[in-house]
Amino acid sequence: PEANPMGLEIKEIEAKAIISIKDSTDSDGISEKLKELYTELSIFMGQKNLKSAGMPLAMYYSYSPEKVVLEAALPYEGNVESEGRIMVGNTPEGKSIVGIHYGDYDASGDMHYAIEDYAKANNLELRNICWEIYANDPTTVDSAEVETHIYYPIN
């Protein structure tokens, strides 16, 4: 295996039940868009008496400065069906390359590049999705302590 300065790991990931909304924005609008979608999902959780089962996450399907296709999701416990644009599903499962980024979210690109480089160097085939779990609330911790767990499923 190649050098691994970012401390990446390959982990077996179990699927988590989520409610989610798929949408798109430009790269500058990601934070605002996620805030809007998490608000909508939180209201839905309250209306359906669902229990939170983990930190918010977002799955990314395509990424360019002009257009980012993403899916904001909240893990939950309870029984619920898809309604309107709110979908019920699961996070991807199986082997993933996992990295943890500490600090301002805008600087997390380096971790994404490191994971892509690590996959290439180790002949690992990435699936067409990545996702991030936001392990703490950026409004309550110092920007240097913001923790983002980044997952790239592999075949």
General description of the model:
Strands 1, 2, 3, 4, 5, 6, 7, 8 and 9 form a 9-stranded antiparallel β-sheet that branches. The chain is an alpha+beta fold and 155 residues long. Strand 4 (57-63) and strand 5 (68-77) form a beta hairpin. The longest helix has 18 residues, at 30-47. The chain is 20% helix and 37% strand. The mean pLDDT is 93.
Write the layout of secondary structure elements.
Blueprint: E1 9-13, E2 17-25, H1 30-47, E3 51-52, E4 57-63, E5 68-77, E6 87-90, E7 94-102, H2 109-121, E8 130-134, E9 147-153
Distance between the termini: 17 Å
**What are the low-pLDDT stretches, counting only 5+ consecutive residues below 50?**
none
Radius of gyration: 16 Å
What's the β-strand tally? 9
Proportion in helices? 10-25%
The major β-sheet equals: 9 strands, antiparallel
β-sheet strand percentage: 35-45%
Shape: globular
Which class do the helix and strand fractions yield? alpha+beta
Given the structure, what is the number of helices?
2
- Tell me the series of helices and strands, N- to C-terminal: EEHEEEEEHEE
Instruction: Report the average pLDDT across residues.
Output: 93
Question: What are the key terms here?
Answer:
single chain; 155 residues; nine-stranded antiparallel beta sheet; 2 helices
Could you give a short description of this structure?
The protein has helices at residues 30-47, 109-121; strands at 9-13, 17-25, 51-52, 57-63, 68-77, 87-90, 94-102, 130-134, 147-153.
